[in-house]
Design goal:
Elements lengths: L62 E2 L5 E2 L13 H23 L40 E5 L4 E5 L4 E2 L17 E5 L2 E4 L2 E4 L1 E8 L5 H17 L9 E4 L3 E5 L2 E11 L10 E10 L4 E11 L9 H10 L2 E2 L2
Antiparallel strand pairs: 1-2, 3-4, 4-15, 5-6, 6-9, 7-8, 9-14, 10-12, 11-12, 12-13, 13-14
Length: about 325
């Protein structure tokens, strides 16, 4: 690969596939079941929140408001005009006790008068609700013995990579200008090696989530060709890099519809230690309302016999190991 190790390009693109907005894919809870599934956007659990996140067992959609009472759902509860004097009596008693406690606190120097409110007792506190935040699941266990796990927590896609590859920090991202305003995560660099005093990388795995505004096959082809040229173009020699792609074929990723495509990137010999061929493959998985895309490449031929270039064997195994994490 002609890019240096860790050379992840964050330059935003200007055209191409639309981004998913940083939202996790909406994997259905059951691929063979009816549509529905997750609510995304950083505010929802993969399996959806209950009526009220602070009280998932609240009856009939009632919302817990504190003080041991529920606010009745619209259209339900007591008829209008009737007041529960017992509840009002309890509230008056609580307020009186709270006022006494604050007064004692001021007297003994354990509370400061003026401007500070007891937690939960301020104006409008009874109507304050906590907005739930979505937390992605942790990275799964590896499946290929002796390898390690690459994981895109935003797309919730995991894939195993060889032991001598380098799983980068989850906060790093990557972009390919020719693909537009898309951000890749779950970054893995292939093995690092020295070439003429410059450290280069022998492969790469990246993944992202995009809107399903094109067919899966077309998406797979575009990602394969444009990623291949981007990975292996050095010093603006894009015209000397060719990407020969096979026809896309249908696949299944743990019950989810998918398409995968493989190809070969060819480039002129620029140095004995740089590749002249590389294997590249793309996997596109249909989530509930998006595509999850994995791109993997690795050097397959170079003039020098060392280091090895096992891309033909490595890339298919990485794709085979890809799975959604729920």
């Amino acid at each position: 690969m002609t890019q240096p190790s860790g050379g992840h390009d964050n330059t935003p693109g200007r055209a191409g596939f639309g981004p998913q907005g940083g939202q996790p894919p909406q994997w259905p809870s059951n691929p063979s079941g009816p549509s529905g599934g997750w609510s995304a956007g950083g505010h929802s659990s993969p399996y959806g929140w209950q009526t009220d996140p602070s009280r998932p067992d609240s009856p009939n959609g009632s919302v817990y408001r504190g003080f041991g009472t529920f606010e009745e759902p619209a259209g339900g509860g007591k008829p209008p005009g009737k007041t529960s004097w017992g509840v009002i009596g309890v509230l008056v008693l609580v307020v009186a006790l709270l006022g006494s406690a604050v007064g004692l606190g001021i007297y003994y120097g354990t509370a400061e008068p003026g401007g500070q409110e007891a937690a939960g007792a301020g104006a409008g506190a009874g109507n304050r609700t906590t907005s739930p935040t979505w937390t992605p699941p942790a990275a799964p266990e590896l499946r290929i013995e002796g390898w390690q796990v690459g994981y895109n927590s935003e797309s919730q896609l995991a894939y195993d990579v060889p032991e001598n590859w380098n799983v980068l920090d989850s906060g790093q991202d990557y972009s390919i200008p020719a693909l537009g305003d898309i951000t890749f995560h779950g970054l893995v660099d292939g093995p690092y090696y020295d070439c003429g005093g410059k450290e280069v990388v022998g492969g790469r795995a990246i993944s992202t989530t995009v809107k399903p505004d094109r067919s899966m096959s077309e998406t797979a082809k575009k990602f394969l060709r444009r990623s291949g040229r981007h990975f292996y173009t050095d010093a603006g020699k894009a015209g000397e890099v060719s990407v020969n792609a096979e026809e896309p074929r249908d696949a299944d990723v743990e019950g989810f519809e998918a398409v995968r495509i493989s190809g070969t990137v060819k480039m002129p010999e620029a140095s004995r230690c740089l590749p002249t061929e590389a294997k590249i493959s793309t996997l596109v998985v249909r989530a509930e309302n998006s595509y999850v895309v994995l791109v993997v490449s690795a050097d397959s031929e170079r003039p020098a016999s060392s280091p090895s270039a096992p891309g033909e064997r490595t890339v298919p195994r990485v794709l085979d190991s890809a799975r959604p994490v729920r």
